[in-house]
Amino acid sequence: MAAEFTQAKVTVPGVISSKGERKLTMLTSYDFTFSRLADRAGIDMLLVGDSLAMVVQGHDNTLGVTMDEMIYHTRMVVRGRRRALVVADMPFMSYQVSATEALHNAGRFIKEAGAEAVKLEGGCNVAETVARLVDVDIPVVGHIGLTPQSIHRIGGHKVQGRRSGDAPGARGRLLKDAMALEQAGAFAVVVEGVPADLGAEITDTISIPTIGIGAGAACDGQVLVMHDVLGLEERILPKFVKRYADLADASVEAMSTYAEEVRSGAFPSRAHSYSSPRPVRLRKAQ
Ligand code: KIV
To answer: Residue 51: CB within 6 Å of ligand 1?
Structure first.
């Protein structure tokens, strides 16, 4: 039976203890309005994903978004939510140069933007950095498998750890990555773009929750990009995306009806116009 949704504020310890108890829900969010709506919908975690480079800024990949831009969007998301835990995504090159720079940038998300955790991509290669962040009480979500910041090395958005096709040892390496993140103190791991059986194996191997995106049903939770779920992103439709609404078409329809009504004069009607109070008539003096 599905565990009940509670209204209580989602916290890092709450996320950790949900493993095996109830499925976690995560959605990306990039602004105040959608953050409020997602919170009302009972989404547990809002990820201010660097995917905003693609779905908000219109770039072809996630590499170009800056720390300042991520901070700007994180602030809006934090303002919109009451219950959900806000996780800010560390953009490309904000944590790779040195652990000191990673500390500085992760600290900005917590201090300046009000995020409650950060996410960064990588496994064994970032374990030391993760440990440094955790050491100063910055909660960290890991991200392994198809890591979009590695797009040039991978050669595209390709499924990782397939039994055939990938370099031998790729599956073992992903398991090691997951274990290294757990060891370093990450409180959850996003697992992206791996076969469902590998998603299940990783989930069984580590004691912290896995949050899958294209990683099968066995993960402890799921994450999707908000614009995909709402049918706002029309350009790409990966296999793992399920559209729960068609807001792109609904938006175009609403906007074209508005434009037609402005052109025809149907809008604004009296109902949407202010009226002046009638002038007060002064009685003639007798
Ligand atoms: O930036 C993002 O949206 C992400 C999710 C796809 C997990 O990292």
So the answer is: yes
Distance in angstroms (rounded) separating the CA atoms of residues 207 and 260: 57
pTM over 0.85: yes
Residue ranges in the chain modelled with pLDDT below 50: 1
pLDDT tens, position by position, 59-97: 999 999 999 999 999 999 999 999 999 999 999 999 999
Q: How far apart are CA 24 and CA 39, in angstroms?
A: 14
Query: Tell me, which fold does domain 12-249 have in CATH?
Result: TIM Barrel (3.20.20)
192 is catalytic: yes
Q: 193 in ligand 1 pocket by Cβ < 6 Å?
A: no
Residue to mutate, 223, 226, 236, ligand 1, most ligand atoms under 8 Å from C-beta: 223
pLDDT digits (tens, 9 = 90+) for 33-45: 999 999 999 999 9
Tell me the domain boundaries of the chain: 12-249
Residue of 25, 28, 30 best suited for mutating to test ligand 1, as the one with most atoms within 8 Å of CB: 28
